[in-house]
Every structure is written in structure tokens, then in C-alpha cells.
Amino acid sequence: MEVQLRDLTKKEANLSILGGDIGILYIIQDVLLNSPSTEFAGVITRHPLTNDLWMRVVSS
Q1: For FRET with 25, which of 10, 13, 48, 50 sits at 20 to 30 Å CA-CA?
Q2: In sequence order, which ranges of the chain are alpha helices (DSSP H)?
Q3: How far from 49 is each of 16, 37, 45, 46, CA to CA, in Å?
């Protein structure tokens, strides 16, 4: 699995994950959403034919 930081600000991080498993990212998303300082955590498959996943996390 290769993780690249696409964009980083004071309250937001956008990651690109190559070769990862979306199931594990859903678990990470659930843990992040249980944190009171997390406003948003989302995971998408960039395209169904590629193994490129994107994750976005916004904190307060």
C-alpha cells in the first residue's frame, strides 16, 4: 500500500492510497468519526477499474 498526501491544510487532509483495501479504510473512517474533533471522514474509490482510493478528513 502506498499513501500520498494530496493536500494538507490546518483542518483538512486529503490522501491518495494506491493498492489499499477499502474495507480497512472504512474501519479507519469509523474510528475517526467516533472522535469528537472529526467533522468529516470520507473514503471513495476514484474509479472502479483502478486500485486508487481517496480519503478526506476534516477536523474542528
Answers
A1: 10
A2: 22-33
A3: 16, 34, 9, 9
Q: How many CA atoms lie within 13 A of 58 on its CB side?
A: 3
Q: How many C-beta atoms surround the C-beta of residue 37 within 10 A? A: 8
Q: Model pTM? A: 0.88
- Tell whether domain 2-59 is in CATH 3.30.1360.10: yes
Domains in the chain: boundaries: 2-59
Q: Which one has a higher pLDDT value, 46 or 30?
A: 30
Q: What is the pLDDT of residue 47?
A: 87
Q: Are 40 and 55 in contact (CB under 8 A)?
A: no
